Amino acid sequence: MGPSAVIEKEMPQTERPITFLRGSEDGDIRSRFEKMIRKAQDSICESIEAIDKIGKFKEDVWSRPGGGGGISRVLQDGAVWEKVGVNVSIVYGAVPPEANRATKASSSSDQKPVPIRFFAAGISSALHPKNPFAPTLHFNYRYFDTDAPKDVPGAPRQWWFGGGTDLTPAYIFEEDVKHFHSTQKKVCDKFDPAFYPRFKKWCDDYFYIKHRGERRGLGGIFFDDVNDYDQEMLLSFVTECANSVVPAYFPIIEKRKDMPFEEHHKAWQQLRRGRFVEFNLVYDGGTKFGLKSGGRIETVLVSLPLSARWEYDHKPEEGSEEWKLLDACINPREWI
Amino acid sequence: MGPSAVIEKEMPQTERPITFLRGSEDGDIRSRFEKMIRKAQDSICESIEAIDKIGKFKEDVWSRPGGGGGISRVLQDGAVWEKVGVNVSIVYGAVPPEANRATKASSSSDQKPVPIRFFAAGISSALHPKNPFAPTLHFNYRYFDTDAPKDVPGAPRQWWFGGGTDLTPAYIFEEDVKHFHSTQKKVCDKFDPAFYPRFKKWCDDYFYIKHRGERRGLGGIFFDDVNDYDQEMLLSFVTECANSVVPAYFPIIEKRKDMPFEEHHKAWQQLRRGRFVEFNLVYDGGTKFGLKSGGRIETVLVSLPLSARWEYDHKPEEGSEEWKLLDACINPREWI
């Protein structure tokens, strides 16, 4: 039995289906969410290819025998980005309770371990540029629901939204970080002035690499298990969040992608990518869920950078540009 | 508060103490185990510097306010190795039950969560060569005990040994892998003919990257929580295991360190190092214990390679040298 005998549970597909759903009504939240993330995937990928000029996305369409499927798009070794993944997945079925628990950012261990039937759909993406002055971007918007409990007649479906967009630079350009956070705030403020402060702090707390005492980057917004607002309002909110990825990030890329740099800048970027790997493999809820639930592994780990570095006991010189970045990862700042 | 304000719980020391123990008798197992691992650290580091010629170890001595301490030695950017860590640690105190559980390879969730007083000492090392034809080596030998239960008069101390030595090449040279496994078997056979088959299989099972369906490398020996033999016999066994690191590995390094290679060989080595990182951060018991227990982070993560790589959906061509390595990681072989 050779390596080719390792059959991924997911089946590759040659064609993109119009929908991964079975029997959902057109106006249903599941169907509308699927349409939204697929449209976002198309338009963001188009914008990326337009800036990169050289890199082209490779697409993998897969279906999950248990229910649903997804479209993975990866651009590798472009002119601007060394690796970009933009994935959508729309899956449903029954999950083991421990996998279900791993999806939640805050693990509540007093939850009852009963298997549940779920629907989970999301778009998730990480963009790792080549230039060490150009920041990595990560975003992820997802909708999750479970079937209405059968033993309670008329009981509603349980549902929630999650997501966020965050920036991980190796060097701080104050104007870039301000622009990025301002764009997030503007979107948030259209819905609720409480959103930005709440989701900004949530982001700083979530992307915390506990064993380092550092955040992965300079934050943005993050939220999980949000269902304490009107469902329509939240759907509009995550739609606008996804639509703000391009205006929040691409002007920064345009400014930084061709900046001259030296080898030591690249080495520092690689060290910070090591932190990105540490966060994703050790703490990230989505990655943990993917690893435990036996998701398509290349999709689960596509957010990892093309390359990363671990130097023993590296400490940037006090006051240096590297030190300033580290300081902001240790002590999150208000950028606006 | 800048990055310099992050105080590691461990205190750096300027001088190596004669012992990290407090009040142990000279003939005590704890003291003898400490002497053994410190002697092994000295002689292995000496051998490494002798082959590398350019690289020199940097030493960090640290003490743990709760009890004990350690010596971390790291060689970076040598001629032969790009990163080598050889650490000893001798620590004792009270551990939270969840950290205690993480040290065990097989997690038994029916264990009662009571805090225990422990003693843990070990030598651990990872050697990552530059040349893609020269394999990475990892070894680790440790002794663990807990205080005798106070409520049972005359009850003995609980103790166990663990450890192993394993080889992680990017390319297979049959003669190298055979030599490596033969050396392990020879040491095992001196003590019990059942050791090698048992510990070889344990190694294949332990270094399994479940989400990939692959082992990290080509194995060797591994065992954990072993106490079902005479304590003196096991102490001699782990001593001989530690002493066999040089004869098992260094002849391979001598043969491979200067082999000519091309860029694609190096890229494949970097991809396999990505798997090494995945195993260590997601599955390795020692790393998990270190991350959860708040151990000195630079020591806990020193086994990570200097650099690693993640390409999306990389599949070696069937029948290629890369494919053969992957095949052996998926389907463990008997090498002797």
Secondary structure layout plus pairing:
Two copies of one chain form a homodimer.
Chain A: E1 11-13, H1 29-52, E2 58-63, E3 68-76, E4 81-95, H2 97-102, E5 116-129, E6 136-146, E7 158-168, H3 174-191, H4 195-206, E8 208-209, E9 214-215, E10 220-226, H5 231-243, H6 245-256, H7 263-282, H8 285-293, H9 297-300, E11 307-309, H10 321-330
Antiparallel strand pairs in A: 1-2, 2-3, 3-4, 4-5, 5-6, 6-7, 7-10, 8-9
Helix pairs in contact in A: 1-5, 3-5, 3-6
Molecular structure report:
- Two copies of one chain form a homodimer.
- Chain A is built from ten helices and eleven strands.
- Chain A is of the alpha+beta class and 336 residues long.
- In chain A, the strands form two sheets. The first copy, chain A, has an eight-stranded antiparallel beta sheet. The first copy, chain A, has a two-stranded antiparallel sheet with strand order 8-9.
- In chain A, a hairpin with a 4-residue loop joins β3 (68-76) and β4 (81-95).
- In chain A, α3 (174-191) runs antiparallel to α6 (245-256).
- The longest helix of chain A is centred in the N-terminal third of the chain and has 24 residues, at 29-52.
- The first copy, chain A, starts with 10 loop residues before the first strand and ends in a 6-residue tail after the last helix.
- The relative contact order of chain A is 0.14.
- The interface between A and B is large, with 47 and 47 residues.
- β11 (307-309) of chain A pairs antiparallel with β11 of chain B, so a sheet runs across the interface.
